[in-house]
UniProtKB/TrEMBL annotation:
Superkingdom, natural source: Bacteria
Protein name, as recorded: Uncharacterized protein
Length: 531
């Protein structure tokens, strides 16, 4: 098997001092039709214990001094000639190849990491000390991943509403997300693996993280010793009732061994926070074009991983924000500092460690270097819309949907999924389009623009009516656009210039600042809310 050699992952520094500020933030939101506002999706009045409340970013370029220059040079490249040299047949063959697993089901990257190349071994101890991918993408009808020996890996996949903007497949990539709680959450009080206990703890974690009741059961509370429905007695319960007010002595408890450890003070729980040891796996993929339409492709662009390494309470999380605000004011030349390396990942102040693997120039997954992972630190902990530095779980499909939301996109795609309601009752994606008619931050997705708006920028009523019932009409691109975006990204893979931007871009972005003036106005006047 061939592996690329263009990138040296051993450098634990970043040539871009603000790699955590994504290229979207350098877009000029002002057009002939006034200012669009894509910024609210990330930067908003946050919910505790995310105390960032960074709505100021919507109206002002509040960058540190080194961030006034746009280091994302790929935004200015013209790849149309190279893209034209790749045939449709070639790109479809490429995206349909599995670069994660062999035909026998073995994980290619795990085999490589068993004896890592010397350059990957950052502490020179002869072994890989970071995360080793262990998701087999063999999900049962409840979303649980199964290893070749028939055992459950602990990973459970869930469906969710794609985050508005660049992450929508119409802008170049599909993606999926899996969650895994620590071993104790998968065991009964005797320390034995128990799938039903694990399902229940996942539901409790979801209830706590999303601050909402989660239907479950029926289950016998007397066998668990936990009052799940909060009716004051141990009985048969069909719901996990969200109720968390510790100052009034109202708590929520996990079950099984995790519950015993929680009572002993070894497992902590708090509203909108996940337990220490929680893991997320997230793959970013190409688009496949089939007779049935545009779908998720087999080939991975990236495999991303996050783990909650240590607990930060509300006071500590507030202190992180207060410190950042003070530094912005007193030391405008300072940038966000994140410790770690390519082997062990990078740890953000909120307690999460993030690590990523990305295609090398031969199309095989390799560890990201420091700078490529530093890119992840902005969204995971640096924006008001996140919840415990995570976005996907809060956007999980609710119970009552297909398989209660516990399934992979290969089992069911986005077609027929209704536009979710914002807290103000408006459709989320419809609201996004009203404020970003091209369906992305760069204002260059003319396919979306022409699908939903007339030449005079009046909305097409029929298209919005369809969106209300089926979000795939917005989220999934046409076959032609999908093929072009796949080709553009494949050119990027050959270049290995991810440190200059990893979006699938065919032509120079027309609305991109090469430089911004510190604390200058963005042109946006009305502050909007993600919620």
């Amino acid at each position: 098997m061939t592996y690329g050699t263009l990138i040296d992952i051993s450098h634990d520094t970043s040539s871009n001092p603000v790699a955590y500020i994504p290229p979207q933030c350098y877009t000029d939101p002002v057009s002939d039709n006034g200012a669009h506002n894509p910024c609210y999706v990330c930067h908003t009045n946050s919910k505790r214990p995310n105390f960032l409340n960074d709505t100021d970013v919507q109206t002002t370029y509040t960058f540190p001094e080194p961030g006034v220059d746009n280091y994302w040079r790929n935004a200015f490249k013209d790849r149309r000639t190279e893209v034209s040299q790749i045939s449709d047949e070639e790109i479809l063959k490429y995206v349909r190849e599995d670069n994660y697993q062999t035909d026998s089901g073995d994980i290619i990257l795990a085999q490589k990491l068993a004896q890592p190349p010397k350059q990957w071994d950052r502490n020179d101890n002869g072994q890989w000390d970071g995360y080793v991918p262990d998701v087999y993408f063999n999900f049962d009808d409840e979303g649980f991943d199964t290893a070749p020996d028939g055992s459950l890996t602990g990973w459970r996949v869930f469906a969710y509403y794609p985050f508005p903007g660049t992450f929508m497949p119409t802008n170049g990539s599909t993606d999926d997300v899996m969650i895994r709680l620590p071993a104790a959450f998968r065991q009964n009080r005797k320390g034995e693996f128990d799938k039903e206990i694990y399902k229940l703890n996942l539901a409790i974690a979801e209830s706590i993280a999303r601050e909402k009741d989660v239907p479950f059961g029926p289950v016998d509370e007397t066998q668990l010793g936990v009052d799940l429905n909060k009716d004051g007695v141990l009985s048969i319960s069909s719901v996990i009732r969200y109720e968390w007010a510790p100052l009034q002595d109202r708590h929520m408890y996990y079950v099984g061994l995790a519950g015993e450890l929680q009572k002993a003070g070894e497992v902590k729980a708090a509203a909108r926070l996940l337990p220490v040891g929680t893991e997320f796996a997230h793959t970013v993929r190409y688009l496949d074009v089939t007779a049935e339409g545009t779908r998720m492709a087999k080939r991975m662009k990236e495999f991303r991983y996050g783990k909650k390494s240590f607990w930060q309470n509300y006071h500590q999380l507030r202190t992180i924000v207060d410190k950042e605000i003070k530094e912005r004011h007193d030391f405008p030349e300072r940038t966000k500092q994140v410790t770690g390396n390519a082997e062990q990942g990078l740890t953000v102040a909120h307690g999460w460690t993030y690590q990523g693997f990305i295609e090398d120039d031969a199309g095989q997954l390799r560890p990201q270097n420091y700078e490529e992972t530093y890119f992840c630190a902005g969204c995971h902990g640096g924006m008001g819309a996140s919840n415990d530095t995570i976005v996907s779980l809060e956007r999980k499909f609710d119970h009552g949907t297909f398989r209660d939301g516990w399934y992979h996109w290969f089992d069911k795609d986005l077609s027929g999924v209704a536009d979710p309601k914002r807290e103000d009752g408006q459709g989320e994606y419809a609201f996004y389009l009203q404020n970003n008619p091209t369906g992305n931050e760069y204002r260059n997705n003319y396919e979306v623009l022409n699908k939903f708006f007339n030449a005079d920028m009046t909305p097409k009523a029929e298209a919005f009516a369809q969106l209300q019932q089926d979000i795939s009409v917005l989220l999934m691109p046409s076959a032609q656009r999908a093929l072009e975006l796949n080709k553009a990204y494949k050119v990027l893979v050959k270049e290995q210039t991810f440190a200059q931007g990893r979006d699938a871009i065919l032509a120079p972005l027309p609305h991109m600042h090469e430089q911004v003036e510190l604390d200058s106005d963005t042109g946006i006047e009305e502050i909007l809310s993600y919620y």
